[in-house]
């Protein structure tokens, strides 16, 4: 398969990267299980992402025109590289299934509670499949509208709740135990920051690393600031109840009541979730289909879109029986499973390429 060039401006890559990292985390903010110390865990996890980002950049310096799958075969050889590539494809489709399951759980639980989950899932996957068949450029074309709308809505909800916000809940500032914070930081690192490994599979289609990597960094910064705003807002509004809420951002928006005129603001949060989750789902969908086509040297990825959609629909329907199971998996199991594809294999590939004497010129850490 000859990979298609994806003609995106730098700002479009920034928007897609930011929305990818926000995704479902705007509705299910990270580190909510530690309450008022969630902002600390989020900060630590972002610092970890900056280290991972520098690893991505160093790896792409070694092979600037290669996709993730080509890099793996270059580093580990044909057969071991193929095994690692198949593992990444499994991870991509697994993550896509998890995203669709999050979508369906939310809509089925709080929005369309009388609608069968099967109908919701088919509609979501069919919408994403249509966008993927149109190409990645069509996905990115609406990213600026979704990002501006989502961030504006989050800020408006913050302003509407200003009279209900109490900063006393953040005392004491210094935690008595750091163990749960570090554990939560690992969870936040894995979801959403570590998931950016998917971009390594399509960055060679977007342009040179000098274009793509700064855009990824700026997108991550937008996501980090937005998540901090949402995390602080939810804790300051809900207090300790934030630990026990399945969808704290949705519960916060339900408290908006300005003179009995501006109410039911939770619909705004639903719009946020659907818009940002759509970008994340379609990005994963495209990356998986194009990755399969590249690995098996198919002429096009487009004929894979429909069967992959059927597979994802069935997998998401069978994945979790309840929302609680879904949230427990994300917090307790997911971070340890995905540390291998997100960090370990990437680090090994970089080390092997360096040891084998591949020529490299590392960029300055902040030299953009």
Mind explaining what this structure looks like?
The chain is mainly alpha-helical. It is 68% helix and 0% strand. The chain is built from 14 helices and no strands. The chain has helices at 10-22, 38-62, 68-76, 78-111, 117-134, 136-140, 143-160, 179-190, 203-206, 209-238, 248-253, 266-295, 305-319, 323-355. Helix 1 runs parallel beside helix 10 (209-238) and helix 2 (38-62) runs parallel beside helix 14. The longest helix has 34 residues, at 78-111. The chain is globular.
Short description:
The chain is mainly α and 368 residues long. The chain contains 14 helices and no strands.
Q: Any descriptors?
A:
globular, disordered C terminus, 14 helices, 368 residues, mainly alpha
Structural class: mainly alpha
Helix content: 55-70%
* Unreliable spans: 358-368
What's the order of the H and E elements?
A: HHHHHHHHHHHHHH
Strand count, sense and closure of the main sheet? none
Question: So how many helices?
Answer: 14
The radius of gyration computed from the alpha-carbon positions, rounded to a whole number of angstroms, is 20 Å
The beta-strand count equals: 0
Question: What proportion of the residues form beta strands (DSSP E)?
Answer: under 5%
Measure the end-to-end span. 33 Å
The overall pLDDT average reads 85
Q: What's the overall geometry?
A: globular
């Amino acid at each position: 398969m000859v990979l298609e060039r994806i003609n995106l401006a730098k700002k479009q890559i920034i928007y897609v990267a930011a929305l990818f990292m926000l995704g479902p985390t705007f509705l299910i903010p990270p580190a909510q299980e530690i309450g008022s110390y969630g902002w600390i865990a989020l900060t630590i996890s972002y610092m970890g992402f900056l280290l991972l980002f520098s690893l991505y950049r160093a790896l792409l310096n070694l092979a600037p025109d290669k996709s993730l799958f080509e890099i793996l075969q270059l580093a580990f050889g044909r057969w071991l590289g193929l095994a690692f590539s198949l593992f990444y494809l499994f991870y991509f489709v697994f993550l896509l299934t998890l995203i669709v399951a999050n979508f369906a759980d939310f809509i089925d639980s709080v929005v369309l509670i009388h609608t069968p989950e099967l109908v919701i899932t088919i509609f979501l996957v069919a919408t994403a499949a249509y966008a993927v068949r149109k190409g990645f450029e069509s996905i990115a074309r609406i990213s600026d509208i979704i990002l501006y709308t989502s961030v504006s809505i989050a800020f408006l909800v913050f302003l509407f709740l200003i009279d209900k916000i109490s900063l006393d809940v953040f005392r004491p500032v210094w935690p008595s135990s750091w163990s749960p914070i570090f554990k939560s930081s690992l969870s936040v690192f894995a979801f959403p920051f570590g998931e950016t490994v998917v971009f390594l599979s399509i960055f060679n289609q977007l342009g040179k690393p000098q274009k793509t990597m700064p855009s990824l960094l700026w997108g991550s910064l937008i996501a980090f600031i937005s998540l901090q705003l949402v995390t602080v807002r939810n804790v300051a509004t809900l207090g300790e109840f934030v630990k026990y809420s399945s969808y704290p951002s949705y519960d916060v928006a339900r408290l908006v009541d300005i003179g009995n005129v501006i109410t039911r603001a939770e619909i705004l949060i639903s719009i946020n979730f659907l818009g940002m989750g759509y970008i994340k789902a379609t990005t994963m969908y495209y990356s998986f289909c194009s990755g399969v086509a590249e690995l098996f040297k198919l002429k096009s990825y487009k004929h894979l879109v429909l069967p992959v959609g059927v597979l994802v629909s069935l997998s998401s329907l069978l994945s979790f029986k309840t929302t609680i199971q879904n949230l427990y998996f994300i917090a307790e199991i997911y971070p340890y499973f995905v540390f291998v594809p997100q960090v370990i294999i990437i680090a090994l590939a970089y080390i092997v390429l360096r040891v084998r004497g591949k020529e490299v010129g590392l960029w300055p850490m902040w030299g953009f």
